[in-house]
Amino acid sequence: MATRGFISHLDLNVSEPARSIAFYGLVLEYLGFTRFDLDSPDRARWSVEYMTGSVLGIEIRPPRHRAPRNRHERYSPGIDHLAFQADSREDVDAVFGLLTDAGYEIAHPPAEYDYTPGYYAVAFDDPDGIRLEVVHDPATNP
Question: Does the domain at residues 1-63 carry the CATH identifier 3.10.180.10?
Fold first, then answer.
């Protein structure tokens, strides 16, 4: 029962799979996810197993249908942002370094926020505009 309610997987439909696979590979593999190639070069899946035994899978794939707009609008209906827990402030800084070294733009560089004491995060958008965050929050991960 300890794993009830954990997120099982997240499937993201992206406008340019090769571009997004490179981006997510950089971030997810640093965070400890393992990549599994799928039956197509425009699809990839990563997964990570938590200490509880729960597994989170994230898949990148092309959209089935093209919408009139190709870029995610953060405050429209749908996902606002996805945050990944980091073990330390140094991990937050390392992800920032990986992204900037690879030429990706950063929405908000590493900083402390007043959500909880010691909350430290970096925020950035994937190639389709989906906001991602890597956060060290001592209140949830001392």
Answer: yes
Residue whose entry in the numeric block shows the structure tokens 């190709």: 70
| The CATH fold of domain 80-142 | 2,3-Dihydroxybiphenyl 1,2-Dioxygenase; domain 1 (3.10.180)
Query: Closest Cα partner for 78 from 31, 128, 32, 127?
Result: 128
Alpha-carbon distance of 11 to 1, in angstroms, equals 25
Quote the CA–CA distance of 30 and 43 in Å, as a whole number.
Answer: 19
pLDDT truncated to tens, each residue of the chain (142 aa)?
A: 455 677 788 999 888 899 999 999 999 999 999 998 777 889 999 999 887 777 889 999 888 766 666 677 776 767 889 999 999 999 999 999 999 999 999 999 999 999 999 999 999 999 999 999 999 999 887 7
Residue 93 dihedral angles phi and psi, to the nearest 5°: -65, -35
Burial of 56 (0-12, 13-18, 19+ CB in 10 A): middle
